[in-house]
Amino acid sequence: MEFRHLGRSGLVISEISYGNWLTHGSQVEEETATSCVRAALDAGITTFDTADVYAGTRAEEVLGRALKGERREDLEIFTKVFWPAQPSPGRNNRGLSRKHIMESIDGSLRRLGTDYVDLYQAHRFDHSTPLEETMSAFADLVHAGKAHYIGVSEWTADQIRRGWALARELNVPLVSSQPQYSALWRVIEAEVVPTCEELGIGQIVWSPIAQGVLTGKYLPGQEAPAGSRATDDKGGAGMVSRWLRDDVLTRVQQLRPLAEEAGLTMAQLAVAWVLQNPNVSSAIIGASRPEQVAENVAAAGVRLEAELMARIDEILDPVVERDPSHTGKQAPPANWRVAS
Q: Which segments of the chain have a pLDDT < 50?
């Protein structure tokens, strides 16, 4: 494993982090989830990302139990707040109001079995709450020792800039952005990345293998493999469906000889590709089996030659999404996973 600073902060994290968005508490049994976390630890991963909304709080609970007994100071544990973590008739159970943030952090800490999180992230931008209120609440959590740093997820460049300015006034470190990013989904490159480079904010990117499409397991003109994310009726299928077009799948298959030339699997090539961006501090991987962790972690420290990067661009260019206006628009809906 190799490590990088999170933006220009002093926090050092593993350049591959482990996330449990679609797996813990839902797709896999807890014994398997724990085995995946153990595999991540054995591979040198120290950074773990989750959210209260994942599997209706169960993902945080499973991760907390899986990490129990580990030396807390040796880990970086990240979680998020925005959506209702569980079904509720309450009108204040979502968003980034002071009330919701203060109540959500206590629930997350209890489920994770820790006194603090290293990074607390705004899971989306809240258009219905004054940004000053949101940032003030986050600042109070940092000053109270419940979070060491704060971050955002799927915010636009303008939203990031406004949040960073307020955080600076409040003397708290807004250090990260967590967007979707892969060789197929590059909407952050035009605006978010340059803004974050200027402000000293690092990217913690999710879905670097495009929900599994960049592994090459989905073939043009064929049914999705049984047991794959495309057949998961609990949420996975909805996210991956936009890539299951023959034009996309055909071009992804053309990456296979490039991966072989580089001595990498398709998944490793995809993870290594996002890590070539110097503004990326870490790439989040997930797993439903421990062996998937071992495969993806092998992308750590891989440096792709400029010629190979150019060939990847040439192959994928016609099917790549680059429009910065799509930032946050391909995210899960507001009730994501709550009912699972």
A: 230-231, 332-340
